[in-house]
C-alpha cells in the first residue's frame, strides 16, 4: 500500500506565496501558480479573491469568508509567473468585510484591480 505524501489541500496547495512583511493593515505579497503565467485574466481573478483573509488578519483573527460580490478589472500586463498583491482591508462591521487589491506584474505594470465584500468567519 502506498501512502500519499502530506500536502496542503485546495488553493493554498496550488500556489506559492512570499509575504513582504509590511507593517500595518495592508497586506503585500508575491504569488504564483508554478508553471502558469499568473497575469492571465482567469488566474488574476483567483488571486484577487483574497480580501476576506486580509480583513480577518487586520482584525487580528484567523479566518476567511464567503464572497458576496467580487469585481476585477484586468489591465494589459505582460505574461509573468509572479504577481504582487497589494491589498487593503477597508471595512468590517456586523460580520461583513470589504477591501480592495491592486495586482502588479514584476515589471511594474498594473495587471488588475479588484474589490470584494464577504460574510466573514473565524478559523479556530
Notes on the protein architecture:
By secondary structure, the chain is an alpha+beta fold. The chain has a single domain (28-122), classed as Thiol Ester Dehydrase, Chain A. It is built from 3 helices and 6 strands. The chain has helices spanning 11-14, 41-48, 51-58, and strands at 16-19, 27-32, 63-74, 83-93, 96-104, 110-122. A 6-stranded antiparallel β-sheet has the order 1-2-4-5-6-3. A hairpin with a 7-residue loop joins β1 (16-19) and β2 (27-32). It is globular, with a radius of gyration of 15 Å. The mean pLDDT is 86.
Shape: globular
CATH topology: Thiol Ester Dehydrase, Chain A
| Fraction in beta strands | 35-45%
According to DSSP, the number of beta strands is: 6
**Count of helices?**
3
Radius of gyration: 15 Å
Distance between the termini: 34 Å
| Structural class by helix and strand composition | alpha+beta
How helical, in percent, are the residues?
10-25%
Under CATH at level 1, the class stands as: Alpha Beta
In the predicted model, the low-confidence regions spanning at least 5 consecutive residues are none
- Biggest sheet overview: 6 strands, antiparallel
In the CATH classification, which architecture applies? Answer: Roll
Total number of domains? 1
Give me the strand/helix succession.
HEEHHEEEE
The CATH H-level homologous superfamily: Hotdog Thioesterase
